[in-house]
C-alpha cells in the first residue's frame, strides 16, 4: 500500500474525491517517467499534412533534447569553462575598440552584472549565468584597461640623438653584434621632448660588450615602432607598447661606458631591479657557456631552449623550422616546461621508489610534485619570463598544485584556471598568437585524449581479460602505441594551432605532421633530458658531456627540418578575414569544451568560418599596397607583386607577399631615355617630361612600375595611373597626369586640385599603411586619354576603396602619431 501511495495509485486524500485517472495526475519527477501516458495523442487529432507541420510538431522534442544535453553539460562544469572565454572576449574587445573605453563605465557595468548574478541566482538560473558572464567580460576589459594605463611611451618620430642609459639586457647574434636593451636617462642634441623609457639598440661595430647594469652613452638613430604593414596585419607598435620598449635603432659608433652619476642614472637601483639584473647576468653566463661548447645552430637552439636567447640561430635554419612547423621548439612553452619538470618529477618518484619503506610512510608523489614545481620556477626565472613562459609556468603550477591536492592534474578545468590567471596578469596576450595557439593546442589535446581514453575503457570492459603476451609483443605494442600517440598529438595540436597560425601569419605548415613525427622523439627523449642534466651540472663545471648529447639531438632536429622543407614547406593561405577567424574560433571552443552531441554545432561553425575565408566571401585582394612611410608601393598583378624598389624592405614586403598567398616579386623597369635609340641616363632631377616618359612606358607594360630613379616611378594597373615620387616640385605635374599620387615626404597638402587621389607621408602618419582596391565598372584611362599632361587621365574619375590600418584608432599605442614635436602638443582629430 505504501508503494502504491508513493506511485500515486492509492486512495485519494481527504477532501480530494472524484479525481481523474491517476495517470493524468502524475507530475514532477514521476510524471517525467511516464511521458507516454501524459502525452498520448487523441485518436481524433489531425495528422500533419506537410513538412512544415511535422517540423513544428518536432520543436518540443528538440527543445527537450537540447535542455537535457545542456543540463548534462552543466553537471560537468561547463559554466566554469566559459568564464575565461568571457574574460578573454572582454580583453579583446577593449583592445579592438577605436578609442579608450571609460574605466568608470566598466566598473559600473561590472557592479550591475554582479548584482544581477547574485539576486537572480535563486529565481532565474539563466539570468544569473548571463550576469556572471557579463561580469567576466567586464573583468577582462578592466584588466586590459589597467595594463594599458601602465604601457610604454612610444617615440613619435625617427630621430638621431645622443642617448645615455643603463643596460638592462644584452643579446648576441650569429654575426657577433650586440643588441642592448637600454633604460634611458637622458637625450641630447637634440633633446627628445617625449622620450621613451626603454629603447632597444644594436651595436654593429666589434667591441667589448658593456655589462648588464652599466651606464653607456653614444650617438644613435632611434625609430618609432611601426604599425601594421597592411590593414588587418600584426601591429608591432602595440606589441612594443605592451613590452615597454618605446623605440628601436642602432648606434653609429661603439657606445662608451660612463660613470652612472655623470650619465644621469638613479642613485641606487631597487632590490627588485638588482635581482632582475642578477638573473640577466646568470642568463648571459649560461648562454655563453652553451655557445662555447656547442657552436653554430645547435648552440643557438640550445641557448633558446635554456634562456630564450634566439639571436644565435642562422636565418636559413629559422626559416626551415618555421616552414615545417617546428618553430615552436624555439619558444619556451608548455612543452619544454613540462618536459623539464616532468623529467625531474618522474626521476624523483622512481628514485624514491627504490626505498619501499619510505614510499609507504611518506607521500612520495607530493614530494616529486614539489621538486617539479621548484624546477619549473627556476626555469621560469632563468629563461627571462616571456609571455609564453609565463603562460607555461602558470599552467604547470596549477597542474602540480592539483597533484598536491590529490586532484586530477591534466583537466580542462585546470586549463581554464591557468587562462584566468594569464588574462588577469597579462590581458594583452589574448589578442596575440602565442596565447591563442598555446591554449588551443592544450585544450584540443585534453579533449581528444579524453575521448580516446573513454573509448579505450569501454573496449577493455567489453573484451574482458587480455591474454598474456610475450615481452617482444608487449614491446612492439608499446612502440606502436607511442608512435600512434605522437602522431595523434602532432595532428591534433597542428590542426588546433593551424586555425590561428593561418590568421596571424597567413601560412600553415603543410609538412608539419611529418616533421613533428620525426623530430619530436629527439626533443622529448634526447634534447630536453640532456639539457636538464646539463643545467643541473653546470654550476659544477661537469656539463660538457650532457651539452654534447643535447647538441647531437639538435643536429638531428635541424636535419629533419631541412630535409622535410626540401619536400615542400609551409603553404601560404593569404590574409584571413577576422569574421572567419571568430567563427572558426567559436566553433573550436564549442567542439573541445562540450561533451554531448551539442559539440556538433562547433563543427558547423568551423565549416562556416572556412567558407567565409574563401575568396568568394573574403572579397577581392587589394590592388595597391602603400607602406606607412610611403616609400614602398606595391601593385598586385597577374605576374606577382610589383614594387617601386628593386630590393624592397624585407620586413614589409615579405609580409605583403604572404598576405597575398606568396606572390612573387616583380622589380621595376628602369627607363633611361625618351626614345628607344636613346641610352643616356635620366636627368638628375626628373621633371614633368620624365613623368610623361614613364607613363608611356607603363602603358606598354601594365601592372609594373617604371622608374627614372628610386624616388620617381609610375605604373598603370587595373585601368588607373599611379605615380610615386619623393620630390615636392613634381606634385602638380603628377596630379595632372595620374589617378593616384603617392609622395613619400611630408607636405601640407591633402588633395589634388585635379581630383586625383593624393597620399603623402603626412597623411600616412595618421592613417598608417593603406590597401587600395580599384572599383570595377570603369573604363580604362589608356583608351580615353588624350595627350600626356592634359589631365584627361583624371576626367574619367577613378574610384578607389581605401582601407587604412589605424585611421580613426586613437589609443595609447597610436597616440604618438598625433604628437607635434615642434609645439609639444597633440593634434587630435576634432
Beta-strand content: 5-15%
**Structural class based on helices, strands and sheet pairing:** alpha+beta
- Terminal residue distance: 84 Å
| Shape assignment | globular
Largest sheet, in brief, is: 6 strands, mixed
**Which segments are poorly predicted (pLDDT under 50) over 5 or more consecutive residues?**
1-45, 674-680, 778-797
Q: Report helical residue fraction.
A: 40-55%
Q: Roughly what is the average pLDDT, rounded to an integer? A: 80
Number of distinct beta strands: 22
Helical segment tally?
29
Q: From the alpha carbons, calculate the radius of gyration and give it in angstroms.
A: 33 Å
Strand order of the largest sheet: 12-11-10-9-19-20
Report on the structure:
It contains 29 helices and 22 strands. The strands form 5 sheets. A 6-stranded mixed beta sheet has the order 12-11-10-9-19-20, with no helix packed on it. By secondary structure, the chain is of the alpha+beta class. It is globular. It has 6 domains: 1-35, no CATH class; 73-149; 159-265, OB fold (Dihydrolipoamide Acetyltransferase, E2P); 286-463 and 470-572, no CATH class; 578-618; 624-798, no CATH class. A hairpin with a 5-residue loop joins strand 1 and strand 2.
Supply database-style keywords.
830 residues, alpha+beta, 6 domains, six-stranded mixed sheet, 22 strands
Question: What are the SSEs and their pairings?
Answer:
Blueprint: H1 2-7, H2 28-33, H3 35-38, H4 51-75, H5 78-96, H6 103-119, H7 125-149, E1 159-172, E2 178-188, E3 198-203, E4 215-223, H8 236-243, E5 247-251, E6 256-258, H9 271-293, H10 296-307, H11 315-323, H12 334-352, H13 356-361, H14 364-382, H15 387-404, H16 412-425, H17 433-463, H18 471-505, E7 507-509, H19 512-537, H20 544-567, E8 570-572, H21 578-593, H22 600-612, H23 615-618, E9 624-626, E10 633-637, E11 640-643, H24 650-659, E12 665-666, E13 669-670, H25 688-700, E14 706-709, E15 712-717, E16 720-725, H26 731-737, E17 740-743, E18 757-760, H27 761-767, E19 770-774, H28 781-784, H29 792-795, E20 800-804, E21 819-820, E22 825-826
Parallel strand pairs: 3-5, 11-12, 13-14, 16-17, 17-18
Antiparallel strand pairs: 1-2, 1-4, 2-3, 4-5, 4-6, 7-8, 9-10, 9-19, 10-11, 14-15, 15-16, 19-20, 21-22
Helix pairs in contact: 5-7, 5-16, 6-7, 9-10, 10-20, 11-20, 12-14, 12-15, 12-19, 14-15, 15-16, 17-18, 17-21, 18-19, 18-21, 19-20, 21-22
Amino acid at each position: 500500500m505504501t508503494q502504491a501511495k508513493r506511485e500515486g495509485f492509492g486512495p485519494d486524500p481527504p477532501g480530494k474525491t472524484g479525481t481523474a485517472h491517476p495517470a493524468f495526475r502524475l507530475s514532477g519527477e514521476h510524471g517525467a517517467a511516464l511521458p507516454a501516458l501524459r502525452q498520448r495523442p487523441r485518436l481524433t487529432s489531425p495528422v500533419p499534412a506537410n513538412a512544415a507541420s511535422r517540423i513544428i510538431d518536432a520543436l518540443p522534442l528538440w527543445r527537450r533534447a537540447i535542455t537535457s544535453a545542456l543540463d548534462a553539460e552543466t553537471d560537468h562544469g561547463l559554466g566554469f569553462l566559459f568564464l575565461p572565454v568571457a574574460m578573454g572576449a572582454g580583453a579583446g574587445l577593449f583592445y579592438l575598440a577605436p578609442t579608450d573605453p571609460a574605466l568608470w563605465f566598466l566598473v559600473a557595468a561590472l557592479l550591475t552584472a554582479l548584482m544581477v548574478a547574485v539576486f537572480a541566482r535563486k529565481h532565474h538560473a539563466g539570468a544569473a549565468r548571463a550576469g556572471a558572464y557579463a561580469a567576466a567580460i567586464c573583468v577582462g576589459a578592466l584588466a586590459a584597461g589597467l595594463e594599458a594605463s601602465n604601457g610604454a611611451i612610444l617615440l613619435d618620430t625617427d630621430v638621431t640623438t645622443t642617448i645615455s642609459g643603463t643596460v638592462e639586457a644584452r643579446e648576441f647574434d650569429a654575426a657577433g653584434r650586440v643588441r642592448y636593451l637600454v633604460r634611458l636617462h637622458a637625450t641630447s642634441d637634440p633633446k627628445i621632448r617625449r622620450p621613451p623609457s626603454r629603447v632597444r639598440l644594436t651595436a654593429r661595430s666589434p667591441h667589448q660588450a658593456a655589462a648588464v647594469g652599466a651606464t653607456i652613452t653614444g650617438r644613435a638613430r632611434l625609430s618609432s615602432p611601426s604599425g601594421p604593414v597592411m590593414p588587418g596585419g600584426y601591429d608591432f607598435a602595440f606589441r612594443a607598447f605592451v613590452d615597454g620598449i618605446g623605440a628601436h635603432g642602432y648606434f653609429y659608433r661603439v657606445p662608451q661606458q660612463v660613470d652612472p652619476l655623470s650619465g644621469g642614472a638613479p642613485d641606487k637601483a631597487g632590490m627588485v631591479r638588482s635581482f632582475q639584473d642578477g638573473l640577466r647576468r646568470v642568463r648571459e653566463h649560461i648562454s655563453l657557456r652553451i655557445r662555447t661548447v656547442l657552436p653554430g645552430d645547435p648552440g643557438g637552439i640550445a641557448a633558446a631552449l635554456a634562456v630564450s636567447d634566439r639571436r644565435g640561430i642562422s636565418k636559413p635554419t629559422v626559416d626551415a623550422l618555421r616552414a615545417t612547423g617546428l618553430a615552436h621548439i624555439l619558444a619556451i612553452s608548455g612543452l619544454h616546461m613540462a618536459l623539464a619538470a616532468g623529467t625531474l618529477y618522474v626521476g624523483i618518484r622512481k628514485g624514491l621508489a627504490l626505498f619501499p619503506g619510505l614510499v609507504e610512510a611518506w607521500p612520495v608523489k607530493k614530494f616529486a610534485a614539489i621538486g617539479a614545481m621548484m624546477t619549473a620556477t627556476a626555469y621560469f626565472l632563468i629563461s627571462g619570463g616571456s609571455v609564453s613562459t609565463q603562460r607555461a609556468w602558470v599552467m604547470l603550477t596549477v597542474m602540480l598544485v592539483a597533484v598536491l591536492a590529490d586532484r586530477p592534474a591534466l583537466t580542462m578545468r585546470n586549463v581554464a584556471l591557468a587562462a584566468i590567471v594569464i588574462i588577469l596578469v597579462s590581458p594583452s596576450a589574448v589578442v596575440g598568437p602565442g596565447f591563442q595557439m598555446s591554449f588551443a593546442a592544450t585544450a584540443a589535446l585534453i579533449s581528444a585524449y579524453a575521448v580516446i581514453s573513454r573509448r579505450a575503457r569501454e573496449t577493455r570492459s567489453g573484451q574482458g581479460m587480455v591474454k598474456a603476451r610475450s615481452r617482444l609483443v608487449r614491446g612492439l605494442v608499446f612502440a606502436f602505441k607511442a608512435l600512434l600517440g605522437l602522431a595523434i598529438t602532432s595532428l591534433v595540436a597542428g590542426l588546433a594551432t593551424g586555425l590561428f597560425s593561418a590568421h596571424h601569419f597567413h601560412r600553415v605548415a603543410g609538412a608539419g605532421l611529418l616533421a613533428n613525427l620525426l623530430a619530436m622523439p629527439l626533443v622529448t627523449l634526447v634534447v630536453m633530458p640532456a639539457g636538464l642534466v646539463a643545467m643541473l651540472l653546470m654550476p659544477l663545471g661537469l656539463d660538457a658531456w650532457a651539452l654534447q648529447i643535447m647538441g647531437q639531438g639538435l643536429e638531428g632536429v635541424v636535419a629533419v627540418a631541412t630535409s622535410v622543407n626540401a619536400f615542400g614547406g609551409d603553404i601560404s593561405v593569404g590574409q584571413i578575414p577576422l569574421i572567419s577567424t571568430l567563427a572558426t574560433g567559436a566553433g573550436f571552443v564549442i567542439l573541445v569544451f562540450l561533451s554531448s552531441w551539442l559539440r556538433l554545432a562547433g563543427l558547423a561553425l568551423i565549416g562556416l568560418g572556412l567558407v567565409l575565408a574563401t575568396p568568394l566571401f573574403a572579397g577581392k585582394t587589394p590592388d595597391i599596397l602603400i607602406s606607412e612611410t610611403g616609400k614602398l608601393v606595391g601593385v598586385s598583378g597577374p605576374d606577382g607583386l610589383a614594387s617601386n624598389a628593386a630590393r624592397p624592405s624585407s620586413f614589409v614586403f615579405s609580409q605583403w607577399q604572404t598576405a597575398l598567398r606568396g606572390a612573387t616579386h616583380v622589380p621595376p623597369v628602369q627607363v633611361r631615355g625618351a626614345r628607344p635609340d636613346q641610352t643616356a641616363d635620366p636627368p638628375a632631377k626628373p621633371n614633368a617630361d620624365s613623368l610623361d616618359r614613364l607613363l608611356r612606358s607603363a602603358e606598354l607594360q601594365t601592372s609594373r612600375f617604371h622608374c627614372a630613379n628610386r624616388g620617381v616611378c609610375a605604373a598603370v594597373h587595373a585601368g588607373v595611373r599611379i605615380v610615386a615620387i619623393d620630390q615636392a616640385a613634381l606634385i602638380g605635374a603628377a596630379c595632372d597626369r595620374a589617378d593616384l599620387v603617392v609622395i613619400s615626404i611630408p607636405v601640407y597638402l591633402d588633395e589634388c586640385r585635379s581630383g586625383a587621389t593624393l597620399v603623402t607621408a603626412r597623411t600616412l602618419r595618421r592613417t598608417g599603411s593603406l590597401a587600395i582596391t580599384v572599383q570595377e565598372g570603369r573604363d580604362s584611362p589608356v583608351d580615353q586619354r588624350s595627350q600626356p599632361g592634359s589631365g584627361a587621365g583624371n576626367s574619367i574619375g577613378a574610384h578607389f576603396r581605401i582601407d587604412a590600418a589605424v585611421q580613426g584608432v586613437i589609443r595609447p599605442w597610436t597616440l604618438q602619431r598625433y604628437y607635434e614635436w615642434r609645439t609639444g602638443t597633440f593634434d587630435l582629430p576634432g
